[in-house]
């Protein structure tokens, strides 16, 4: 990505930390317009040194970001990214990256088409004991991702999910909760639903919590406990029936990827991506990647 920049204190932006420090003390504003050869990008960013703490704003709309082209030296494993698109506007204040993240307010939405994900990881997310055991013994493999849609509203550093869906050919994962950059804390709930039958699946949602430096992963015990109680009751009546509460019927349907993305886009539009600091209009919200990585348009 090759940004082009300008400022209102000269035609050239600072090229060293010392120059930037003097430049910001003069109350200059820095505007950056990114260009990316491996994507279609439109947007602007500004940093206003005339305020204390530093004030910044970013507006961005991207299509068809191909991480494999942007980072050709990155070795992809069983999980890899497809084509990514997104849009958003974030405002922040602070004199460090941590302070800016902890104060950001705005909206951001991302969509990914294509890519691959670890099958074992998805089976574990669904607490599918039977299939996870098979993969553990025979070896993991990757499966195609249909789409990923992530829509967040940020308020004072706290990002709240509006939509969070990861859909593969075998499993759909729906998420909700918060990512708190001010307190560096996670509060996410991931519920996986299988599209295939399984003999032994606990199907308890996964809770991601704790601090960024020490995240915790635990099973929401409520549903697992209810299934265990049901199994005990059925086992008392007729022992073979005790396994019934743990059978996964695999009734989850494919996510409406286009519909989810359209609703997320409409929400961001309704939030009103405002213009930049210089009064220019904000970028159009164009988030659809448009084609699969390595594939044709669809």
Describe it for me?
This protein is an alpha+beta fold and 298 residues long. The protein has one domain (24-271). It has 7 helices and 12 strands. It has a 12-stranded antiparallel sheet. The model is unreliable at 1-5, 16-26, 126-140, 241-249, 274-288 and 290-298 (pLDDT under 50).
Largest sheet: 12 strands, antiparallel
Note poorly predicted spans: 1-5, 16-26, 126-140, 241-249, 274-288, 290-298
**What's the total helix number?**
7
Radius of gyration: 23 Å
Number of domains: 1
Share in helix: 10-25%
Distance between the termini: 26 Å
Quick one: overall form? globular
Strand content: 35-45%
Structural class: alpha+beta
**What is the β-strand count?**
12
Order of strands in the sheet with the most strands?
Answer: 1-2-3-4-5-6-7-8-9-10-11-12
Mean of residue pLDDT? Answer: 67
Summary keywords:
298 residues; alpha+beta; twelve-stranded antiparallel beta sheet; globular; disordered N terminus; disordered C terminus
Please describe the topology of this protein.
Blueprint: E1 4-7, H1 17-25, E2 29-33, E3 40-48, E4 55-66, H2 67-70, E5 80-93, H3 97-101, E6 105-118, H4 119-125, H5 129-138, E7 142-155, E8 158-168, E9 171-180, E10 185-194, E11 206-211, E12 214-219, H6 221-237, H7 257-271
Question: What would a concise description of this structure say?
Answer:
The chain is an alpha+beta fold. Helix content is 22%, strand content 39%.
